[in-house]
Specification:
Chains A, B: It holds the Pfam family DGOK. The structure is a homodimer of 333-residue chains. Chain A has 333 residues and is α/β, with parallel strands linked by helices. The first copy, chain A, has nine helices and 15 strands. In chain A, strand 2 and strand 3 form a beta hairpin.
Amino acid sequence: MKHIKNLIIGCDWGTSFFRLRVIDSSTNSVLAELTSEDGIAKTNKKVEKESDRFGLFCEVISENLDALKTKVDFEIDSLTIVLSGMASSSIGMKELPYGHLPFGVRDAFGLDVEVFENNASFPNPLILISGLRDKHDVMRGEEVQLLGLAHLMEFSKEEETIIILPGTHSKHCFVKNGVLNHFQTYLTGELYQILSEYSILSNSVTKETLKAWTPKASEAFSKGVLDAKDSSMLVNLFKVRTNFLFSEMDKPENALYLSGLLIGEELGNISLPSDSRPIILCGGENMNVLYKKAVEALGIESRTQFVADDILIKSTIAGQSEVFKIHNKKLND
Amino acid sequence: MKHIKNLIIGCDWGTSFFRLRVIDSSTNSVLAELTSEDGIAKTNKKVEKESDRFGLFCEVISENLDALKTKVDFEIDSLTIVLSGMASSSIGMKELPYGHLPFGVRDAFGLDVEVFENNASFPNPLILISGLRDKHDVMRGEEVQLLGLAHLMEFSKEEETIIILPGTHSKHCFVKNGVLNHFQTYLTGELYQILSEYSILSNSVTKETLKAWTPKASEAFSKGVLDAKDSSMLVNLFKVRTNFLFSEMDKPENALYLSGLLIGEELGNISLPSDSRPIILCGGENMNVLYKKAVEALGIESRTQFVADDILIKSTIAGQSEVFKIHNKKLND
């Protein structure tokens, strides 16, 4: 079997998914990829004694590596595995304490990793990456995305840049001169989900995904974004009920109104007229549609750059490559 | 059997409870009372054809009246039943359209009722009270409480008074010169419930009710109230997670912190230093404890009057009496 230089295995381990990629760290190209449903939560449930934890997680990696081997015609047994995401959390393979800010998004200053040498039972060296904490906040996984993004695109050199990673727990990351000084988590996505599923509002919205952006749908979403500025969210939420009671919106429009309210609330603090900081919005295909409309409604298009899906996916890959290269450089220094 | 003058039957029909009271409308004293679990939601589920709706709800009233009769030694068959709450909603006995503001809290101006004469199958006349709507808001039941409160206590004659009825959907009612001009619903209680049960925060708070207010518990609650002023609620909520992750609060303290965040957010708009309007807080025994602490943390004690449990219970009774008297007066005019 042939050997290829500079290869690593990137492992992106989320709460509900598991992903392995063979990455050429010199170009960030992906030579093979495998995803499975062996997420952290599912794997954590299999742990019976805490002493077995690390070994059991290694077994799950091994099983997936075996599946990955069938997809390549070169040796991967000795490649270093770089693990990001929830693997270093309290329900992961080994809990690592959060690194503290400031964090260097180009040089990974402040990032904590733990390295596990290969041994008889597990032939690959492992680099387990920890998350970061702010005074009132935490992230695990996004720090690797930031590292990747900083290598894939240019951030403003003069001004603080706000990098937004939307999702269940949307992250706002404040970066200046290559340094992450502060970040905040918004419960936007999760609140949308529990409100539309478990609250009184569930009768006023639809759970189906939108098929087409009609003018009325756009209008409903934008109205939500702008209404968020007028009152407390606790009051605005009840409007989702009266929109429907008063037949002002149908359920699909009202679902967009609710989504607009929450995204408008999330973007409220950074859309003041006095704010000129550039915004990089990393929503991917689905989220960017919504955030683009919100940004338009708030009139902050000129400050905002949207990151395309391919760059967003590549950010984790590039971040894992960077961690590997920085680690290697340290070893050789 | 003896007859007593001025008697009515007050029916307070909520989503999940049913309550009948024999009331002396001249004194608002209660001569007999009965509660059952025949709430609107449960009764609504029994409706098979829409044409049966009214009759089926009457049957439920009749069954409960029969139980009430065993508790009294006087005739109640001809007494007028005054129905408030959800009985006039779309899932109630007959949907009545919401009345529009302004609403007279002393003379019931603007209140819509429908009167059903007694007949062979149902011996009691019925007065079914509808709710009220504002531009973006609705209430059913609180309008009768307001009517009762206005007769049980004095509201400010000069300034607009803010009457707060806390709960799952907390109502802020703005009354001036005996007229309700505006009201707003805050999703405070419901959001607390779904966040502590279904969100990621459920692992960071306890569901048990507080046994004692330790100094640390008070501090946690007040911190939540004050933090609500600093950031968006979407950001503040994630602090409930980090409070626990960073061992800054235990689960009971953190539950109070979450409660403080939400109540602080609810009271935010009316606790500005420039605001001098009197506040009447109708929390009852459980809620007043929390709202009192919030009011103290916000420094608005001097503007706020707390309504005791007995007055709060009496407000519905007095309100139903008023509706009866106003209706009678109209008949006799």
